[in-house]
Predict the 3D structure of the following.
Amino acid sequence: MNTNFSVVPQLLKKDPVLAKRIAASFFAGKKSMLVDHFFHPATTNELGLIYFRLTPLCNLRCVMCGQRGDKGVLKGSFAAAESKKIVPLEDYMRLVDQIKHKKPVVYLWGGEPFLYPDLFPLVDYMMEAGLTVSVNTNGTFLEKYAKEIVERKWHALFVSLDGFEATNDRIRGEGSYRRVIAGFEAINREKALQGSHYPYMGVVTTVNNLNYRDLYALAEATRDFKLAWHIYNLGTYTDDAIVEEQRAYMKRELDTDITCLPGYATGYNEGIDGKELFDILSRIHAMDIDHPIITVPALEPDKIDIYYGKLDAPVRTQCSVPWSQANVDYNGDVHFCADYNDYPLGNIRETPFFEIYNGERAKKFRLALKRSKDGIFPGCVRCYQNMLCGKRVSGF
Ligand SMILES: C[S@@+](CC[C@H](N)C(=O)[O-])C[C@H]1O[C@@H](n2cnc3c(N)ncnc32)[C@H](O)[C@@H]1O
Ligand code: SF4
Ligand code: SF4
């Protein structure tokens, strides 16, 4: 199975300026591995992509979510208490001023980003600063805000859907499928009314043992959504043994106590028939459909069983994230790892971004990662960021 990157030539034809910006972000990642990682691995000159986890709050409780799901570590009264720490707009504006010369692609997520109270002014400010802004959302607020989103020409929406109606709602909550579809319709209506091709809109589907047999039905349904892409994310998983190995490793190497990784020991990877899933994904890739299909990570047919069954076997190595990416958390803490954000590098409310990004803690982390076996930590083996940017293991 190959990842279908036809999204790039399609975008080049439709929107060369945006395509160039995305390509620049991608090349920043590659260059950082050839230059910074190789010659001076403790520091970097590149920043291609910056994530903002804007809020710990969410209106859904998707079962597999490492934050809010069955095993999620950011729920209930804890999330409510944490939400009091969210970064105010003016601090984010100061951060944008600090980073804009690097022109990173911005990826806003959460929790649910639409629950960040100043989302619209924040995106306005980022876009005025020349940044490319994408928003990852559960889609349930799109209908309400379609007019504003299209008027403001947001660049891209990554909308989560995890199956056709009944399956999606079992995972993401009753009625969520219909709300997302109503959101797509509202955005498409506004785009037609306003004569705009922004925002480009795509679906992200997280594969698990509750939905994999339903993926073709979802793919059929997406024909009407006017999508720019559909990403199948094979999922971020771990198990108790890897959690314990990571716990000991991070304590020893970086004096860090881990709390996030256990949220991904969900069991939703168990019992997936790799051959059947490969056949389903192959049929989807072969569909006569307008939008590109992207599988992350792309795997050889016989390796899907290993992806889900043998969670300690790497399929991607040499994590490049700390040399070109960062995640700013809802409280202002900066981390390299968006999902497993256990090692804070510093806080943007107290310290200028690049002093954090190339500060002592960042240097320690990069050096520890570089000297680790295969350029990853034990807990990194199914990390989504590494599935996107890591080096494909031969045969996988
Ligand atoms: C945590 S959500 C935050 C943004 C927004 N609330 C949403 O659902 O799109 C970001 C993405 O992570 C995905 N996700 C949740 N749990 C996951 C898991 N265990 N493995 C991989 N992706 C997961 C979601 O489906 C979503 O596409
Ligand atoms: S909508 Fe997003 S953040 Fe909320 S529970 Fe679902 S995956 Fe997690
Ligand atoms: S692979 Fe590991 S180091 Fe890299 S982003 Fe993921 S969790 Fe962090």
